[in-house]
From TrEMBL:
InterPro entries: DIPK2A/B, FAM69_kinase_dom. It holds the Pfam family PIP49_C. It is found in: Secreted. Keywords: Secreted, Signal. It comes from Terrapene triunguis. It comes from the Eukaryota. The keyword Signal applies. Belongs to the DIPK family. Residues 209-377 form the FAM69 protein-kinase domain. This is FAM69 protein-kinase domain-containing protein. One of its GO terms (cellular component) is extracellular region.
Amino acid sequence: MGRWMYYLCSNVLGLLILLQFLTLSWTPFLEAKVFPSSVPHVKHSYSFGRTFLGLDKCNACIGTSICKKFFKEEIRFDNWLASHLKLPPDYLPSYSGNYTDDAKSWRLVEISRLTTKYQHDQADKRICASLSKAKSCSIERVLRKTERFQKWLKAKRLTPDLVQGLPSPMLRCPSQRLLDRIVRRYAEVPDAGSIYMDHLTDRDKLRLLYTLSVNAHPILLQIFPEAEGWPFPKYLGSCGRLIVTASTRPLKEFYSSPPEVAADLALQLLSIVNSMRNNDMNYFFYFVHVDAGTFGIFNNGLLFIRDASTLGIIDKQEGLQMTDGQQEYKDIFSCLASDCQSAFSSCNSVREKQSLVMVCQELLPKLLKGKFLQPVQE
């Protein structure tokens, strides 16, 4: 890192104080001018076919909250979409919609693709090609026959051996306490609350395993909800490779914002990174990657983690639970989000200030560049 970047990362407290001072008198400006509060409405609603949901071949969405959002309640796309429903082009990882559960009050939501190295159609073909030689392929039927899922069917409790080799950073070295929290707070089943999986049907277990394998972002939003003060958007539902959450604007849209706005966002950014290292739950959250789409901003100016798929978790209360040797186990579920040949990084290699260094290197220079006069800029 350059001299000023080293100074920045080494003097976080001083930077926090400076940023707080710069933003104290600008709260009315932030709320009234920068963040629009109006929610656009559209006149026409659209019908949703099951193929829209991704993983339709295995009926993964049946009974989930997202199905209720799509089929029993209304989600309307903004005006820029075609009048007849089509999936937006692949280069759009997310797109806006208006959501209501009473047909009267509307709120802006974000429908996001749980993007991975492989798009959903390619990954589905990988499942069929690797495990089935039939011309027609039911993904559900194929995945049910795997050794891993057979272990899931017999299991009464989600244990570390059942998630060995899954590519999510969250599951790189999971504690039993974290896995119990996943089962207890899994929102797609009616009787959540128990650490045992007796209330999960076979299809519930497959749905949970598939989501953990593809992208753990929806699970993180469920087990660490915004209502309890965690810096994530509100979870509304997910299915296959789609998720619906409260709407945010990506941080990259604010790179050209006024100095007072940039200072406020930088302050929030550093505060979130610090809170994810030190919290009452004794979980240490760390990023394995950050970019301009990792964080988002709500209409009220609050900054949240927009994409939690690159977050790893170490349980400081129970310590590391899995060795590197155990992580070498791989199967088809290990390949739904990344190249099967990719090596997993060790939890022992995670540094305490890893996330802070990433934010200082990748985000703060773009957010704060040229915003202030000297010597404040330095």
